[in-house]
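Recap from last week: sequence in, structure out.
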Amino acid sequence: MTAKRVEGYKTGKYAVWNSGKTKETDERIKQTALKISKTIQSNIENGTHQTWRDLSEERQQEVLKGISETKKKNYASGKTKPWNLGESKFTNSLLAEISQKISDTHLSREGHGGRHSIEKVKELLNNSGFVPAKEIEYQNKYSRLTVLCQVCNYEIERSATHLFSGAVCPKCHPESQPQFELFEIVQKIEKSVILSDRTVVAPLELDIYVPGKKIAIEFNGLWWHSEKYRDQNYHWKKTKLCDQQGVKLFHVFSDEWREHRDIIVGMIKQRLGACDNRTFARNTTVGKVKTPDRRNFFKGSHLDGDVNATVAFGLYDKTGRLVSCLSLRKSFHKKWQNRWEIARFASVPGEIVVGGLGKLVSAAKKWAIEDGRRSVGFMTYVDLRNGTGSSYEKVGFQQSHITKPRFWWTKGKHKIDRFAVRADKKTNRSENEVASQMGVFRVYGCPNRVMLLDFDVAEPVDV
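Predicted structure tokens:
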């Protein structure tokens, strides 16, 4: 009987009694709707029915995730199909009506965030100093448009909103686009370099891409890359997408470029194999580094600068110059209290010390064992925003786990340490409330890779 009834509805033999009717056009449906509404309202008042707002944020996320997964499975299996599958405004009257309403609404709001006509788009581009580089494919303010600068004929691709609201040509105005400065520096090292590539991880854009080296560089402005505009996994997702294509992505924040340009350029040279100097660790002398020397060295060679440390070891070349340094401290994390943490490791910017990390780790290991303090090994954090940790793997370290994306606070100009903003128990303010009153936002990087090296005290240590 069920099968016959279903077939009858399909062939039109039977019809749903309320097809095309609503509570506005049918009294029976109206009374049913009122009855349902009263029942739900009564249940809400006596507490037997919870509204969406009554659920905690965590529970809301769980429910949404469950609904999403169920829908995905139903669509994948064919159990659920879109009502308009295979239809268009040319074949379905309802779609044609919806399409016309949307079009009328957008055009009526032109100049107020709505959709512009193609003629208006051309006018706005011309006012901004650009002309279309090819036929315009414009749908709304999020559409990506390829345009040419009217002054230098340089081609760029930007969103319609960006172009209409004062975008400038990065070639004519490099001071407004620090990433163009970075691009020119890379271009001096590698002639085959692409600015604003959209082929590697389409439709996402890579600010600078060197195809021959499979190296990409992202220039991240703190304000536009804060949590106001980017979710906490944005940079990490992009890094992983590049990795899937065999491309190593290096992220640079705007304050780092402004304040540590020499370090950034040095790191880029190392990645592109264009180092200013190459030293072999076997030709260096290892020794302890005094605190003032350690501070000065890391201040000029490490993006995060120096931190307090128990001891530091360095490699000195034949002229007595410190070319590489590694510092140790006791970990703040309870889980790693029985390990020494490698707090900092760096070489002179733009230079490479072949085998340097291995020699420094051996010296540190010998010191740790002879020191007599209870310790089972080393641990360190590798920031996946600008490295993979492969050099640590080569000297015996193994991965423990990967943390959540690292974050800082910012007002748009500088990064502020994440511990600078904490919940205030005295005033009963949450961390977010404190941050809001301070006017700061989180800016996320990539996760840290936690690496471990266990000690074998019976194994001789050769330095």
